[in-house]
Amino acid sequence: MSYNFNAEKITAELIGWVRNYFEKTASPDTKAVLGISGGKDSSVAAAVCVQALGKERVIGVMMPKGEQPDIDCSRLLVETLGIKNYTVNIGSTVSVFTEELEKHIALTPQAIINTPARIRMTTVYAVAACIGGRVVNTCNLSEDWVGYSTKFGDAAGDFSPLSTLTVTEILQIGDYLGLPRELVHKVPIDGLCGKTDEENLGFTYAELDRYIRGLTDLADKPELKSKIDRMHKNNLHKLELMPKFESKIQTI
Question: What angle do CA 198, 36, 231 make, to 5 degrees?
């Protein structure tokens, strides 16, 4: 099985979708606000928003945790797009918060990794609240499929332009938009735990994307198939609405 991904067509539709979302739900002055990591997702999402709304309506927020080795990539993106941006260092906030929490409970590796991501999203929403903006969710289908996102962290947002697109497809869109290659094809890393995405996952995005799109059934790699299926099932709660009790209260 094969499929034809038309980057030009999908990009045009994506830009139109973002423009239509703002026209229908926001005022002409409402900004698109997003965290800028300098990787493929924030780069493509920001570029699409610039195409849809104009650079004056897109705001980037850079949020290093102390010293960030690849902060130059974030700066390159905002300079390339010509968008207004803020740099808010979350290092001291994370330290103060975790130190206070540790007085009461032992921190787990999961808490240590997820807390900065949630503080970053709190920061993006604070900026949006100050300037009148909608927060861009920059997650993609590949990461969402296996739960490689933080609930109420990078998985949050007001609208999600990339969540039906795989990593492989987003790379093609980034190239089509003419973004710097070092941003689009930068090795994905969360910047918090020191490992690349693929090191954390235990498989490549190329393998995952082919499986998602039905280009392989991974019959020759049963252990990998089982792992991906298990991760997908265990993390569906991140993609679904919060379960709620449906009361059956009758009034008389």
Answer: 30
Written as six digits, the tokens of 17 are 């979708």
Mean pLDDT per 10-residue run, the chain (252 residues)? 85 98 97 95 98 98 90 95 98 97 96 95 98 97 95 97 97 97 84 72 94 96 97 94 89 78
HEC secondary structure over 101-120: HHCCCCCCHHHHHHHHHHHH
* pTM, entire model: 0.93
Task: State how far the Cα of 117 lies from the Cα of 150, in Å rounded to an integer.
Answer: 7
Q: Residue 227 has what pLDDT? A: 97
Q: How many C-beta neighbours within 10 Å does residue 108 have?
A: 9
Contacts of 65 (CB under 8 A, 6+ apart): 89, 90, 91, 94, 116, 191, 192
139 closest CA partner among 113, 160, 118: 160
Cβ distance 162 to 45 under 8 Å?
A: yes
SS3 call for 187: coil
Which pLDDT score is estimated for 194? Answer: 63
Q: Give the distance, in angstroms, between the CA of residue 134 and the centroid of all CA atoms in the same chain.
A: 15
Rg (CA), the chain: 19
Backbone φ, ψ for residue 34 (5° rounding): -150, 150
Distance between CA 59 and CA 29 in Å, rounded? 12
Alpha helices in the chain (DSSP H): 7-25, 40-53, 71-81, 91-102, 109-131, 141-145, 167-176, 181-184, 197-201, 205-212, 222-234
Report the mean per-residue pLDDT for the chain: 94
Q: What amino acid is encoded at 220 in this protein? A: D
